[in-house]
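Figure 6 in text form: structure in, sequence out.
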């Protein structure tokens, strides 16, 4: 089942991007990178930080601007408030494409300074930038064939710090 789900996701993504390229709206790496730069400028986005809240608000605003139905999945984990962001469009079988937008509170693997939070340009920023740009360009016929969910998870990147597991947001979403 997992293999078929992955194959369907890949096929739908390629087909959807090809459909976008034929229209007036094309995926732009520059636009995706601009989202990454915006997220990094907000500062560290670890769970509970001002940057995390600001990043989530920015993601929600962009998704709504692009015409997506947006909801949040808010929950508490170890006395901290977290927020997954879910954008939906289309009808049919659900295809979920996910990323995370949070960053690590400590650069625990940095060989020089492990005390600082991670800025998260690549890990936590690049996936969010790509999904935001995909939200801008993804149109029919892809959304006429499936219900697309773009999910931005919180709490993924705190794993192994203060005994947190990885992927808290994803785990919580599927178990609620």
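Output sequence:
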């Amino acid at each position: 089942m997992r293999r078929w789900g992955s194959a369907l996701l890949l096929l739908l993504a390629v087909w959807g991007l090809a459909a976008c390229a034929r229209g007036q709206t094309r995926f732009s790496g520059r636009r995706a990178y601009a989202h990454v730069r915006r997220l990094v400028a907000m500062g560290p986005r670890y769970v509970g930080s001002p940057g995390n809240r600001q990043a989530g608000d920015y993601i929600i605003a962009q998704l709504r601007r692009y015409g997506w139905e947006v909801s949040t999945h808010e929950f508490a984990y170890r006395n901290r408030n977290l927020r997954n962001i879910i954008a939906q469009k289309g009808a049919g079988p659900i295809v979920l494409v996910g990323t995370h937008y949070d960053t690590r509170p400590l650069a625990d693997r940095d060989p020089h300074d492990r005390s600082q939070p991670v800025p998260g340009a690549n890990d936590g920023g690049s996936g969010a930038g790509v999904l935001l740009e995909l939200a801008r360009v993804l149109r029919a016929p892809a959304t006429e064939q499936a219900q697309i969910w773009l999910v931005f998870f919180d709490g993924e990147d705190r794993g192994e710090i203060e005994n947190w597991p990885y992927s808290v947001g994803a785990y919580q979403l599927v178990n609620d």
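Caption detail: The radius of gyration is 16 Å.
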